[in-house]
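Pilot study result, target chain (104 residues):
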Amino acid sequence: MELIKGIREAEEKAEEIIKTAEAEGKRELSLSEEKSREIIEEAKRRAQNEFDKTLQRVKEIAEKEREKILKENEKEIKRIREEGEKNFNKGVKFVVSKIKERWA
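Predicted structure:
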């Protein structure tokens, strides 16, 4: 009888150890899942932050390039206008001279 009682106590103890281990395993799993979610959220936040910084830098670079192109275009427009005015004046002088030659 003592042997059977000892076996039952050992089985009960083993069941208690198993239940405790299962509960501890579930708790550890839950903690691990929570930690994983926190790590993922932090990674997402960092990635968004880096994306925002990179986007801002790209916008600044694009704006500088835009300004550079606008200045270059303004210079070219000015040059073309000046050249057009010179050619216009030459054309007027040419037409006037031809009219004078014809009427002279």
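One observation from the pilot: The chain has one domain: 1-73. A full batch analysis is planned for the follow-on phase.
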